[in-house]
Amino acid sequence: MMETASLRPALGAGVFTGNGDGCTLSGAVDLPIFVSVPAGTTAHVVPFLSPGVGVGFISDGTDSESGARASLGAGIGLVASNGLGIHPGWRRIFIEDGPSTLGIALSFGR
User: Fold this and answer.
1) Rg for the chain (alpha carbons), in Å?
2) Per-residue pLDDT tens over the stretch 11-63
3) Helix, strand, coil shares, percent, the chain, to 5
């Protein structure tokens, strides 16, 4: 069994297309914490918890808004000994009336 914590930064930017000017910017950092547990001789089960914080900015050319929010992610991965993994997960950004998101990722590695 192996426990690990790391730091995962993310940056984003966008430019409006169509009518008007505008842009969006975002930045976030998460602290993924996980445990890798052997599942038989050919796989690992990897549950994780990922608290984080992010900031965002949006402008339509005349008005702008910005703010910071906390977030929490969780999920579980199944990774085969050949490095192929599948990772379903959930994330909640703590903002009023904000939805949770569900996702699934595939990974390839050694």
Assistant:
1) 18
2) 999 998 877 789 999 999 999 999 989 998 899 999 999 999 999 999 987 89
3) 0, 70, 30
91-100 CB contacts, 8 Å cutoff, 24+ apart: 91/50, 93/54, 93/69, 94/69, 94/70, 95/69
Residue 70 identity: A
The answer to whether residues 41 and 51 touch, using CB atoms and an 8 Å cutoff, is no
Cα–Cα distances (Å) from 97 to 10, 91, 100, in that order, read 23, 14, 10
Question: What's the pTM?
Answer: 0.77
- In angstroms, the CA 34 to CA 48 distance is 4
Q: Rounded to a whole number, what is the distance in angstroms from the first to the last CA of the chain?
A: 17
Question: Which tokens sit at 13?
Answer: 């930017």
Residue 37: both structure tokens together: 């547990």
Residue 99: alpha-carbon gap to chain centroid: 14
- Contact assessment for residue 48 and residue 76, using Cβ atoms and an 8 Å cutoff: yes
